[in-house]
Write a structure and sequence with these properties.
binds S-adenosylmethionine; 6 helices; alpha/beta; globular; single chain; 7 strands
Length: 218
């Protein structure tokens, strides 16, 4: 069975979606998995991504210093931090994004991040515009469910088609809970948790597309 790597994921949401479609999927993060599993590798993604991932990879590298919503911190550092910290963390974030985006031997790669500011784009090697931008509610079928949210999500895709929305809602009832997450130590985790509707579409649509390419190349 061909292997799928889900990089920088603790929630297991994308990993479980690929597993439920019958793929040999593994998540990897420097942190442990949020829930018990024997399908999580706790390590730096850079130590793991060069193994044999012969179907595809979905990567969720940290966006804190790359995303448009945080660009203000590059001119006025948050309390207790320096501008030097902010620019160093931007360089580190752009470097990790570059490494997962440019990983050459995985046949199909998707990198997910929010809308980026120009300083991030300038630092990413072989930067390209995202292939597509989606909203979680486009993959929602239940107004009260976890997918009926607004959060602009960009995909940089290599050898994968843009996702087709699978939802039935029109966005008018979509919530903003991602932006309204209450302050606290785990705010970043609440804000970065992924959405099961998009994950299911990835596993079905990208899993099928990558499988077809693998068969065609055999
Ligand atoms: C934006 S969050 C993505 C969370 C993901 N969407 C989920 O549902 O679990 C970024 C993740 O990257 C992880 N991370 C940061 N640097 C990493 C590295 N070098 N290798 C692997 N994971 C890393 C963080 O621990 C964090 O869980």
């Amino acid at each position: 069975m061909a292997k799928v790597l889900i990089g920088c994921e603790t929630s297991g949401i994308v990993r479980e979606a690929f597993l439920s479609m019958g793929h040999d999927a593994w998540s990897c993060d420097i942190l442990s998995s949020d829930t018990p599993t024997n399908r999580h590798i706790q390590d730096d993604i850079r130590n793991v991504m060069n193994d044999e991932w012969d179907l595809m990879a979905v990567m969720h590298p940290p966006c804190t210093r790359l995303c448009n919503s945080g660009v203000r911190w590059l001119s006025k550092a948050p309390e207790g931090r320096t501008l030097e910290d902010m620019w160093r963390e931007l360089d580190e974030g752009a470097e990790l994004f570059s490494e997962v985006w440019n990983v050459a031997h995985i046949p199909c790669v998707a990198v997910e991040n929010p809308v980026m500011h120009r300083h991030a784009k300038e630092r990413i090697r072989n930067y390209e515009k995202p292939t597509q931008t989606v909203q979680p509610w486009q993959f929602a079928t239940d107004e009260m469910g976890p997918d009926n949210e607004r959060k602009r999500t960009c995909f940089w895709l290599r050898s994968l088609p843009a996702l087709s929305p699978t939802g039935t809602l029109d966005g008018t009832s979509a919530r903003d809970s991602v932006f309204k997450a209450s302050p606290g130590a785990d705010r970043w985790k609440v804000r970065s948790k992924f959405f099961p509707g998009i994950a299911a579409a990835m596993a079905k649509q990208w899993g099928d597309a990558a499988q077809q390419q693998l068969l065609a190349a055999a």
